[in-house]
Recover the amino acids of this structure.
């Protein structure tokens, strides 16, 4: 009788577990399409992580590898984390764009903060896949309050890296007194891979004029001129610096577009190739 009762309880728990997993799948599929912009691999990855959690709750089964809460790294473990050459080059371009480095209060090491509007979710997820070895958490979507003037909710997706010694040199290069600046040796640092990610992050393509514009408004005029001169000297892109309502921008003309496409085409994230007219 006791065995029969245990069997009944086991079957009941199994049915509850299956029902819960089905509800999780429906919820994740419905919300994941919007959250991950149709990226089914990310949706199903989230689903199976949820399944692992559900099974663990009901049966005491350990979560599958990779779904456990990340452990806190020791100082020596943080010191051992290094960036690949590609990651280093990408960071040069991304820091010229929207990427921010920050040293939080009470910390000695810098961390990186990646953020994009949800219209660029696919791009942000690609960056996360490149840098996830130095992250402790997956990207998250934030939905701030509606704009008081327009009522529009400008949702964004973001992720942060760990605070690591390997980011300190990038912080030192790009920040002076907490203000982002252009390194004086940018000509030595900028590569084709870095340029591709700079454009992906902060460039726009103007179809009517067949030109590329880099939004460098946050930098001083002298810094923007240094960037333009670097592009001209290294790759003969014939850039010009134009004053706008909020600062100075770099314009790469149509006649230089073939050079730019040849230079950056192979390095440009697929979803951003339109920014160089491809």
């Amino acid at each position: 009788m006791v065995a029969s009762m245990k069997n009944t309880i086991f079957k009941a728990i199994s049915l509850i577990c299956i029902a819960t997993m089905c509800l999780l799948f429906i919820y994740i599929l419905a919300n994941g399409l919007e959250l991950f912009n149709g990226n089914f691999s990310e949706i199903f990855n989230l689903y199976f992580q949820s399944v692992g959690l559900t099974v663990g709750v009901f049966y005491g089964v350990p979560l599958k590898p990779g779904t456990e809460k990340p452990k806190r790294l020791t100082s020596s473990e943080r010191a051992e984390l290094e960036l690949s050459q590609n990651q280093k080059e990408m960071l040069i371009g991304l820091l010229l764009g929207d990427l921010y480095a920050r040293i939080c209060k009470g910390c000695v090491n810098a961390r990186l903060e990646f953020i994009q509007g949800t219209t660029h979710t696919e791009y942000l997820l690609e960056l996360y896949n490149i840098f996830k070895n130095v992250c402790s958490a997956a990207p998250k979507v934030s939905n701030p309050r509606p704009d008081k003037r327009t009522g529009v909710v400008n949702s964004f997706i973001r992720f942060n890296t760990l605070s690591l010694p390997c980011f300190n040199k990038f912080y030192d290069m790009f920040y002076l007194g907490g203000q982002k600046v252009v390194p004086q040796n940018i000509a030595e640092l900028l590569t084709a891979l870095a340029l591709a990610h700079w454009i992906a992050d902060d460039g726009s393509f103007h179809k009517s004029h067949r030109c590329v514009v880099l939004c460098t408004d946050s930098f001083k005029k002298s810094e923007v001129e240094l960037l333009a001169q670097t592009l001209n000297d290294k790759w003969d892109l014939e850039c010009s610096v134009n004053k706008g309502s909020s600062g100075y921008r770099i314009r790469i003309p149509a006649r230089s577009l073939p050079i730019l496409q040849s230079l950056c085409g192979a390095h440009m994230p697929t979803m951003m190739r339109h920014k160089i007219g491809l």
Summary: Residues 115 and 158 are 4 Å apart (CA to CA).
